[in-house]
Design brief:
single chain, about 80 residues, five-stranded antiparallel beta sheet
């Protein structure tokens, strides 16, 4: 990685599941229809970052069907961003 083009960062916060965004519908390569799941992550300073958390099928559109995926508490991500 070019040290001037990419930067490694850590982001800590908690997910705001009540404000999630379902982007779609979209179809995967296997023909299954669903949505990209985007959830705001609120940081300690109150700023927010949108996190693309993956893809959910139409059957999992309702949060009540994905209880195990509704991460509670503080989470931390280590990632590379392009500047």
């Amino acid at each position: 990685m070019d040290e001037y083009e990419y930067r490694r960062i850590r982001v800590t916060g908690h997910f705001l599941h009540d404000q999630e965004i379902l982007l779609g519908p979209r179809t995967r390569g296997d023909g299954v229809s669903g949505y990209f799941l985007i959830t705001p992550l609120e940081r300690e300073d109150g700023s927010r970052i949108l996190v693309k958390r993956g893809w959910v099928s139409r059957e999992k559109k309702d949060q009540a069907t994905r209880g195990a995926g509704l991460t509670e508490g503080t989470v931390m991500f280590a990632l590379s961003i392009k500047i």
